[in-house]
Amino acid sequence: MQPKRPWIYPSLGILVACLGVVEQLGSPGDKHLAVALCACLIGGGAIAVLPAAPLAALAVMLVVDAGYQVAVGDPPFAAFLATMIAMYHLARAATRRTMLIGYAATLVALVVMDVVVSVRGLDSPADVIIPIVYFGAAAGLGGVVRHSAHHARIARERSDALEREREHLAELAAVAERTRIARELHDVISHSVSLMVLQAEAAREVIDTQPLQTAQTLDTIGDTGRQAITDLRHLLGVLRPNEDTPPAGLDALLEPVRLTGLHVDLIESGEPIPICLRPTAYRVVQEALTNALKHAAASNVIVTVSHTGTDVTVEITDDGAGTPQPAAGSGRGLTGMAERVQALGGTLSTQHLTPQGFRVLAHLPVTS
Q1: Nearest to 86 by CA among 141, 7, 154
Q2: Helix, strand, coil percent values for the chain (each to nearest 5)
Q3: Where would I find the beta strands (DSSP E) of 205-319?
Q4: Which residues 6+ apart lie within 8 Å of 279 measured at CB?
Q5: Are the C-beta atoms of residues 120 and 71 closer than 8 Å to each other?
Q6: What would the pLDDT profile of 197-217 be if each residue is shown by its tens digit?
Q7: SS3 for 125?
Q8: 245-263: buried (b, 16+ CB within 10 Å) or exposed (e) per residue?
Q9: What residues in the chain have per-residue pLDDT under 50?
């Protein structure tokens, strides 16, 4: 594992070497000054190359310490400190195999030094315990830092993964919201504009012969346009946020359709539709009527709404030619209906009738 700041170990090596040199020069009467200075400089160089060759650097320092102990006596503090730093780095950044080899080599070096001290008759518990304590403390500190860095890395990776997941969920939410808005726009505009076009064509046919009916039809066109504007304001959040239901009931939805000449019967049974299901039921009926007007060439439509207590069933049946083929429409209306119903845990099915006609059937579960 390479350090994030490669200049740290060379700088630390220079510092340790300089401290050792200063310490040794402070003892001019030492007859082993040259050897001690070499040990200090070798220790500084070993620290400098620790990131590139941790095991080799530790081995060099152990040889220096053991050799100095055999030839001269206790090694300089700078050399001892360099060995501790090598032990720390081994536990902090080396692989498991390298650590085991380094620990074994350190143990061998300590045994050698202990044997030398024993042969010289200078054996004491401190001569063995002190190096073990210092080297063990250095290795332990390196292990703690390694463990902390490992957990910090795991925490960062987990945080990054959560952030990516949040971004992904936000993207999905944005896509779902765009789909919802597109579906709402299709339902509102397609239905309202279709009614206005049919009513305008009907008014044109009778403008000369039935001026009163023409005026009523034009009033209906205006009402339909105003209702479309209200629905768009509701969709875009201009109205109060808690307005989750359509501004009018099914009767108000059917009346403009009837003015186009399409005969529509509404059959309702059971309890009133729950508030949470009304927008979906409203849009399903609206889209089915739009398809009947634009594509089916129907003359009669039956809208049946029943609430049994456990679910709401909405059925729209016409006597026209059926749903539009791909060349005649985009298919977004039927897809939007299915998405609305499925979002509430319900089902939507469509069926061509014989000899002609088309049926849209939606089942919406009632949740407690």
Answers
A1: 141
A2: 65, 10, 25
A3: 263-270, 300-307, 311-318
A4: 244, 245, 246
A5: no
A6: 877 877 787 787 888 878 877
A7: helix
A8: ebeeebeebbebbebbebe
A9: 238-245, 247, 324-330
85: nearest Cα among 48, 112, 129: 48
Instruction: Taking the CA atoms of 44, 49, 54 and 55 in sequence, report the sign of the dihedral they define.
Output: negative
Give the contacts of 332 (CB within 8 A, at least 6 positions apart): 182, 183, 186
Single-letter residue type at 143: G
3-state secondary structure of 133: helix
Distances, alpha carbon 128 to alpha carbons 10, 109, 133, 142, in Å = 30, 11, 9, 22
pTM, whole model, 2 decimals? 0.45
Q: Per residue in 37-73, is it b (16+ CB within 10 Å) or e — as a string?
A: bbbbbbbbbbbbebbeebbebbbbbbebbbbbbeeee
Which own/partner pairs from 60-67 qualify as long-range (CB within 8 Å, at least 24 positions apart)?
61/86, 62/105, 62/106, 62/108, 62/109, 63/109, 64/39, 65/109, 65/113, 66/109, 66/112, 66/113, 66/116
- Residues 6+ positions from 189 with CB-CB distance below 8 Å: 228, 232
Q: Are strands 300-307 and 347-352 parallel, antiparallel or unpaired?
A: unpaired
Pull the structure tokens for residue 113. 């030094």
With contact defined as beta carbons under 8 Å apart, do 227 and 192 qualify? yes
Of 249, 292, 279, 300, residue with least CA distance to 362: 279
What long-range pairs does 96-99 form, CB within 8 A, spacing at least 24?
A: 98/54, 98/55
Q: Measure the CA–CA gap between 314 and 281, rounded to whole angstroms.
A: 7
Reported as a single tens digit per residue, the pLDDT across 235-283 is 666 444 444 445 467 888 888 888 777 899 999 988 888 888 888 888 8
pLDDT at 363: 92
